[in-house]
């Protein structure tokens, strides 16, 4: 069983930056694709970014492309999301997720592809 714990959320002004981190338990972290999703009040959970098992392939939602960067460190069992030039529309609870398939590709965009989820961390961007 994989456990995921997000950290790094908080309150930031528009235009500012935050770095989210997801720490994973287990010895098979380096076989999983990892994703970030977010959910705002009254909205459905939406895809933000993902990275395949090796870190060689990354995927981004159009709304964050050019502002957010996903990365992973398999030696430390962590995946990070660097968020720059934040907008009020980025306000949401951000969730880390793991996909045991690990391959990336089109499946990373669907939350049903992921086997494990973290508890979420709140990001609030003020105008």
Descriptive report:
The protein is built from no helices and eleven strands. The chain is globular and about 40 Å long. A hairpin with a 6-residue loop joins strand 5 (46-51) and strand 6 (58-60). The strands form two sheets. Strands 2, 4, 5, 6, 9, 10 and 11 form a seven-stranded mixed β-sheet that branches. Strands 1-3-8-7 form a four-stranded antiparallel β-sheet, with no helix packed on it. The protein has 127 residues and is an all-beta fold.
Q: Any descriptors?
A:
127 residues; mainly beta; seven-stranded mixed beta sheet; four-stranded antiparallel beta sheet; 11 strands; 0% helix; globular
Compute the number of helices. 0
Broad shape: globular
- The protein's oligomeric status is single chain
Structural class: mainly beta
Measured by DSSP, the beta-strand proportion falls in over 45%
Radius of gyration: 13 Å
The overall average pLDDT, rounded, is 95
* Overall strand count: 11
- Sheet with most strands: 7 strands, mixed
| Unreliable residue stretches | none
Order of helices and strands: EEEEEEEEEEE
End-to-end C-alpha gap: 40 Å
Helix content: under 10%
Please describe the topology of this protein.
Layout: E1 4-7, E2 10-13, E3 18-24, E4 33-39, E5 46-51, E6 58-60, E7 68-73, E8 78-83, E9 92-99, E10 116-117, E11 121-126
Parallel strand pairs: 2-11
Antiparallel strand pairs: 1-3, 3-8, 4-5, 4-9, 5-6, 7-8, 9-10, 9-11
Short précis:
The protein has 127 residues and is an all-beta fold.
């Amino acid at each position: 069983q994989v456990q995921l714990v997000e950290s790094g959320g908080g309150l930031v002004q528009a235009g500012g930056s935050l770095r989210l981190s997801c720490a994973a338990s287990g010895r098979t972290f380096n076989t999983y694709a990892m994703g970030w999703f977010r959910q705002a009040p009254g909205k459905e959970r939406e895809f933000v970014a993902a990275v395949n098992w090796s870190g060689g392939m990354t995927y981004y939602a159009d709304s964050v492309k050019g502002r957010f960067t996903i990365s992973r460190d398999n030696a430390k069992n962590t995946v990070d999301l660097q968020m720059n030039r934040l907008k009020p529309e980025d306000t949401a609870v951000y969730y880390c997720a793991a996909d045991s398939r690990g391959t990336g590709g089109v499946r990373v965009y669907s939350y049903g592809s992921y086997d494990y989820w973290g508890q979420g961390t709140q990001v609030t961007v003020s105008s």
